[in-house]
Amino acid sequence: MSTSTHLGRARAGTTESPWVRRTLIGIALVFLLLFLVLPLAAVFTEALRKGFGPYFDGLLEPDAWSAIKLTLLTAAIAVPMNLVFGVAAAWAVAKYEFRGKAFLTTLIDLPFSVSPVVAGLMYVLVFGSHGWFGDWLSAHDVKIIFAVPGIVLATVFVTFPFIARELIPLMQAQGNDEEQAATVLGASGWQTFWYVTLPNIKWGLIYGVILCNARAMGEFGAVSVVSGHIRGQTNTIPLHVEILYNEYQSVAAFAVASLLALLALVTLVIKSVVEWRSEQEHKAIGELPPERPQASSGALA
Fold first, then answer.
1. N or C: which end of the chain has fewer CB within 10 A?
2. What is the mean pLDDT of the chain?
3. Region for 286 from its dihedrals, namely left if φ exceeds 0, alpha if ψ lies in -120 to 50, beta otherwise
4. Cβ atoms within 10 Å of 294's Cβ, excluding its own
5. Of 270, 211, 236, 237, whose CA–CA distance to 83 is shortest?
6. Pick from 228, 215, 223: which is nearest to 264 by CA?
7. Separation in Å, CA 253 to CA 34, 114, 268
8. What's this model's pTM, rounded to 2 decimal places?
9. How many other C-beta atoms are found inside a 10 Å radius of the C-beta of residue 107?
10. pLDDT at 190 over 60
11. How far is it, in rounded angstroms, from Cα 66 to Cα 251?
């Protein structure tokens, strides 16, 4: 084999022959086509099978509109809560050494290892009518399970690792030098966070918020357990799609599902833009962007 061929492969970062690379790329493209592109296209095709009239009727039907509003409301509450928790947890883990640090890190990863259905069941056992606090909640006319608070709690549980897990390795890679310098120069804790830490983590923070929001809107298992499936009241978009499909209202079911798929696509576009902006900013200052940890398989489920 010629020296020029070896040099060309070295520049490409691989030692495989061209046919091996083409085969691997072809397999990857076929896999994406069969398991991602075609199912996604099928959702929109089935949604528009009878035209735009039935499509918009399925989206504007009162129960569907209620599910859409509840999904947006749940995400609007869960994501800011996880934003505060994620920043606080990442700050504690990355910037300080304390007893129980490893245990806290393990707890942050707990929702990744617990089935969402089990998570929903835990809330039923704690806050349900026959649960630990059931009698007290009933006596004070407080309803959590089969109501919006239970849906929010379940969504918060399954989504809270995303922001923290995005920020922890980023903060650890950056170290404490800049914060310590700001403190020496007389900056308060809030000033140090606002003017030093936050600018350094802004792209990672945005990235984590995007993933958290995507999971919050698409969560099914935990919400299904605590919602009670009350049409027009406690059904989110995924639950409403299941009900419509089980009732053989396929056009309406795919219409609502297409909205969820569209939200996922928009999320991926925003995610790609954030990653590109982050890379451009690091290139402008002559730094390599820190490697991101692999997201959980449930991130965009």
1. N
2. 85
3. left
4. 8
5. 211
6. 215
7. 22, 29, 23
8. 0.81
9. 13
10. yes
11. 18
Can you tell me the distance from the alpha carbon of 262 to that of 160, in angstroms, rounded to the nearest whole number? 23
Please write the tens of the pLDDT for every residue from 38-77.
988 889 999 998 889 988 988 889 999 999 999 999 999 9
Q: What is the DSSP string of 246-299?
A: HTT-HHHHHHHHHHHHHHHHHHHHHHHHHHHHHHHHHHHTT-PPPPPPPPPTTT
The per-residue pLDDT for 15 is 66
**Residue 219 near residue 117 (C-beta atoms within 8 A):** no
CA atoms within 13 A on the CB side of 47: 22
- Tell me the C-alpha distance between 252 and 232, whole Å: 15
Residues with Cβ within 8 Å of residue 147, at least 6 apart in sequence: 228, 234
Asked if 94 and 261 count as a contact pair (C-beta separation under 8 A), the reply is: no
List of residues 6+ apart from 269 with CB closer than 8 A: none
**127, 169 in Cβ contact below 8 A?**
no
Give the CA distances from residue 97 to residues 33, 94, 100, 104, 178, in Å, rounded to whole numbers and listed in that order: 47, 8, 9, 12, 18
